[in-house]
Queue: 3 jobs
Job 1
Amino acid sequence: MSKAEHKVQKKESNGNTNNRRASMIASEHLQVAAVFDTKTNAQNAIDAVSEQTNIALSQVELVESGDPKLSEKLEKNTETIGNNLWTSHLVLGSVGLIIGLICAFLLTQYGPALTQQNPMFTYIALISPSIFIGLFIAGLLGLRPDRNQIVQTVRHAIRNKQVALIISLKQSQSVKELEAVLRPHANDVVAAIK
């Protein structure tokens, strides 16, 4: 298989993954990124998007090499993300504490003689791991590996002196339609959850 055929096959497989994701999640929660060799190609794509779709220009962010607002364009709601991480860690850590307390209480009241004779050690032994498990689950929820695909694609393009478009979709806007408009102009098109 030649290098060009491999690239086409990779684009098609990425498109299938993105379409599956897009069909499962409402469009207002999705963002699409496209990578271009030049700013002219990106501007042509912006013109095509505005003519062929119902996407407003205010939904489109152009990112060039050396853009000082790259992080803001990729992650607009960093404060919301931080609040969600903080809240999830507090809630799931507290849930872990409560579960640990309940399990320790049950074991000290109705469990084997070892746990009934050593209640303090039973509480310590059950509360510590249950809090850790709650915090671990909160951390896993905060990782967002689905989001990493769009961030890495844009950052890689910027490092290679390319231009990227980041388009935040709204309700009733189609990822499939947007990808169809962008693909003829772009080197790569990816979609991810905001």
Note: The longest helix spans residues 78-110.
Job 2
Amino acid sequence: MTAVPPETPPVHPEPVSQNASAAPPEPSPAAPAGRNAISEWTITIILLLFGTTTLVQAFVIPTGSMEDNLLIGDHLLVDKLAYAPAGPVSKYLLPYTPVRRGDIVVFRYPVDVRQTFVKRVIGIPGDRLRIVDKVVYLNGRPLEEPYKFHKTPYYDSYRDNFPSEPNTRVDPRAMEMLERHTRGGEVVVPPGQYFVLGDNRDSSLDSRYWGFVPRENIIGKPLLVYWSYDAPTHRLVSPGLNLEHVRDLAVNFFTKTRWRRTFLLIRGHEFRF
């Protein structure tokens, strides 16, 4: 709210000689102060909007496909500049990196770009991969994956031995991948595409079911968990204001917040061949 200066009684100036030049009136200090305040707030708002849409953005994990590394209810800060194309000057100032095997990435779901997914990159362009009895083979070698979890005791003919004939309904993109990009029992990742899997390997909707992730769909790299709250998926994905979630927060904020995960750094895994 803009402050209004108090009223002052009128002042009658002293008469001046006709030959004397009238001095210009001094500017009121209130006007510049008001303009400066408005300018500062405008710049602050622009920087905040720029930072939250261009540099860093917040996301929440709604499903368990990355358990037990990322949990349902983890709120992430995502670095949107990590994979940005380097400019002639910015490449010397900012740590741009290519998308690497083992990176955890946030991306727009190829089937519905309005949704945002988080998975781990397994194959980059040119890689050959297959899964045999739940073991991933990349370019002919088995991967050591200390980050992955298997939570079902049984083997699935498609999920755990890939590529193979689907035993469930898959997206047409996955069928195209199987038909056009399979060579010698291996999926070959085409240029500009990436193959991703969830760390909760037995319960993840990933590239096995909807195909590759185009490079332009990748938003950025998660930096840290800034807050983690134990909430079910339906509350986290519901559009608009979820009153049930609001009431739960009001009553259980301190008991359901996973305090040990606050400011937990998120790191990828470097594959060694």
Note: The longest strand covers residues 218-228.
Job 3
Amino acid sequence: MLLLWAAGAAPALAHGGGDIAAGFAGGFGHPLFGPDHVAAMVAVGLWGAVLGSPAIWVLPVAFPLVMAFGGVLGIAAVPMPRVEVGIAVSAIMLGLMAASGFTGPVSLAVPVALVSGLALGLDSPPESILLGEAVAMLIGTACGGIGALAMIAFVASTIARWRQRIILRVAGSWVAAIAILVLALRWAA
């Protein structure tokens, strides 16, 4: 948020009814606006920390790139009904897997995270009609997603070393609970 303020960009309120700032700066901050988006990214980072070394370094790069690809598909007007439900459900699943301490293979971690990233990208395509601005926004979204998920993964991997991963498991249960609340609020509206 501080970087967006320093860059002079208006806040990107994609799901709050406001407009998204144009260009790279708007895309950079876009992954951090919306509780379902943040819950999904935190769940991916937590589960990557539970899985350990290979997953914790693959997921922060693969997730945002697939998220940007989903944004490209959103520009191409690929119809995806109720994709926000998929985001919340994937955050619930990943949060519960982190809370349970489930250590499946990395070959399972990457597809689950990629499906979550694709749903995130489909839910938030650039709203610009100019191709240059839309491309800059997609690049900014990928860079912001990589940065945010890398920070989440770093903090989660640091926390994973403490107290037999209890804090990591508690955080996973909180993320799952937040995603359940987001899903319930979406259904209530």
Note: Confidence is low (pLDDT under 50) at residues 1-18.
